[in-house]
């Protein structure tokens, strides 16, 4: 760790640069500049510093001669960069002082930045945390993603219903942290046909695309914590280069060419807003291929520029596929090796299958990607041939392993037979990778046991676990400066790069002074959140109440409606019995629903309508408040997480691959109420059973219950509190004058069969919640548990995740600059 920047920082030069950008880049004067112009000019001046380091890192001979990881992801949910980069550069206070000389308050300026929302949720945020940890630990890396013009939609509410608006994250002025790299642009083909050519007496297949587009890279600097290492996050933007292919035009395929023209401008227009649900749309496949092809070509360009032979690709480059979304990169690399580099199949396959590794993020069947064979054949005819070839050779292996077992062949085949033949991208990834990992211990076990048992038998060393993590720089040091300072005052300042050191706080868990300081920080963070809520939503919050938080994408399997049923049960008990004892609670939700996910939107509507009623009902609103914070995004999480007392992680067991919000909240001293699912299992292992509230069915119970014929009515009829809570959805209690408007949820849970076992877990959840309530009323005991949560979750640093990848999968060496 060399805080070199800190030493070489030249304040006067920096101030001159800010002023220069203010006038030449943003065309304004110091007298007339808005806060936004000041923020832009400041960030541009800062990004010049990191661009220099980026270029130096890129040309560093030690890095060129070392092995790198290429992290391919359709999503990078990076959040605001300016504040976090200042922290990583170690110059926050210097810049604060410098900007104050210009009459500007740094914190105000930082609020001007819009979040680049280039991801849906967990998977995209994980990619961002991983880039931070790679740079912090100086493992050579490049992140490859897409430069969407519109990120994840902006959410607002109209009469309780979710409204979506486009998110033009770059603004009209452009994003100050990115730099265009036109010299690194790539041409990418689509459609067309394949022909056979003779090259040196050998038959070679050659793809003649029917349309070509340009991939323009934009680099965003990933700044290593207190080092000069800056790796690129390279985001590809699609631009049209020709109105249509002359060849298609001459072949008479005029309409196909026209159609292509329309698609070209659209390819990177917008991020698909589905999370854990695949929809087989042509444009999505075009995005995926565009991303893969541009990235693969850039990787080979870098490899050859460093003077390496293509045969040595796996020695210098590894390619991590963030879920199956970039899976088409596998046949793309094969195509280049076979058709452009003239290799034979076994040479090419050896290289390709030693280069790729794949991370699985889901077991949900509806989220496993399959693509219509006919679509791939039309869009990428040569890739489809290569997929057939991969499958053909793979099925021979299957036949050798299980002679005569047709069922095995059908199950493992990359091609799913049937009326519409489909390509199973997960199977392609397992066959084409040297390592496959799940994202939490339990998830990885289920990947082996339920998702890919035959693959596990066939390739016993291929399936691994790497438990997810979060960057402690953004998710503690940056977002919770008071807690950070308190921790540093007790255990020194190396915990941000060695999070296990937090365990030293264990010794202070019973220390009454420390407990008071710790809880005072929590209180201040709750006040900060309450002020935000008052200012933006005009809701008054009692900051002595329990802040009970569920913030994540809206999904049935995440069971926001279980949380809601608990709230209804409290409301019911309070209205029935005004003496009902409970610590006051503020329930905080934030969640976006995929625009096409009807039930998810109904759940948002229900939460909003119930909030409206309860928050204005004097019979209960001293005890109960509900806040649905609109437009959940990284910068909002940075305010909510430090203020959280209770972290809701209540997915049906076996459904949440890992979760990472659970880690962020525990690290900031929240107590988890959660199921035995995903990384909750490992959080419990770390913090101990007495410091977490585990409830509900476990994976095996879920299976047994489903197998025995689960009937939600059994629970409804047997549990009066459950029945009363659910029945509240039927009348017009929460939709005055409009009875039945919340019926959809009621019906999905009863006649709909309750696929995620909300009713089965209700009683156990309510019981766990009452333990939470009891505990909160003993503040000393609560403080101890909160401290122990912070102290004992060091494992969940993404630095550790990256070291696991490095040691067990990528085999990289650090290159210190
Ligand atoms: C696929 C095809 C077409 C359109 C969209 C998609 C798509 C997009 C995003 C499918 C899935 C996603 C995102 C999945 C995701 O975020 N999964 C989460 O990954 C986290 C990081 O590993 C885990 O912590 C969560 O448990 C998991 O749900």
Automatic annotation (TrEMBL):
GO CC annotation: cytoplasm
InterPro entries membership: Glycg_phsphrylas, Glyco_trans_35, Pyridoxal_P_attach_site
GO molecular function, one term: pyridoxal phosphate binding
EC number: 2.4.1.1
Cofactor needs: pyridoxal 5'-phosphate
Keywords, alphabetical: Carbohydrate metabolism, Glycosyltransferase, Pyridoxal phosphate, Transferase
Sites bearing N6-(pyridoxal phosphate)lysine, chain numbering: 664
Gene3D superfamilies: Glycogen Phosphorylase B
UniProt-listed SUPFAM superfamilies: UDP-Glycosyltransferase/glycogen phosphorylase
One Gene Ontology term from the biological process aspect of the record: glycogen catabolic process
Pfam families per UniProt: Phosphorylase (PF00343)
UniProt entry tagged with the keyword Transferase: yes
PROSITE patterns per UniProt: PHOSPHORYLASE
NCBIfam families, sorted: P_ylase
Family affiliation: Belongs to the glycogen phosphorylase family.
Name this polypeptide is given: Alpha-1,4 glucan phosphorylase
